[in-house]
What we know:
The structure is a single chain. Strand 2 and strand 3 (about 65-80) form a beta hairpin. The chain is of the alpha+beta class. The chain is globular, with a radius of gyration of 16 Å. Helix 3 (about 145-170) crosses helix 4. It is about 40% helix and about 25% strand. Bound molecules: zinc ion. Zinc ion binds next to helix 2.
Amino acid sequence: MRNIIRKYGDPILRKKCQLVEEVGSAERNLILRMFTIMREHEGIGLAAPQIGIERQIIVIDTGEELLDLINPQILEERGGDSLTEGCLSLPEIFIPVKRPARITVEGLDRYGKKVGVKAKGLLARVIQHEVDHLKGILIVDYANEKRMGKVDHLLNDLAHQSKMLIDIKNKSGRLNSTDRRDEKMGGQ
Ligand SMILES: [Zn+2]
């Protein structure tokens, strides 16, 4: 399996992602690639920064509902519940997160058309998790002190691995060429 998912400690996961100004074939291809990567890693949601792309794009497949959104904006939030969440960027770490139970989200579809989605249950939760990624927010930010104490050593390990990967990348032309491809896609 390709080890393409950026993990905790990679600075891109803390960046505020850029709005997508034009939606074209590059964005459609990126969305398809994101669906493939998400499924390869058995995820139910993926945000572009998790594969090193600083743009506001998310994809979701809860098993019941499929959704991809560009520049998603949560407009309404109602109710609230708590559920333990995981994240492809934080393997083996699970954090109970309180979130609004029902939301209305707006964004663009893969053809650049404005869409609005009313969501509840798991879909609402995954949308909020992925929108958080676009703002540089991770599930550990919701952890209380006790939970943080339990996952601290895992976070340190991940941060250490991410740092090593970045060091290797900086030294390796082969991996840099992959990054250049992503940057080019980001510029279109
Ligand atoms: Zn995540």
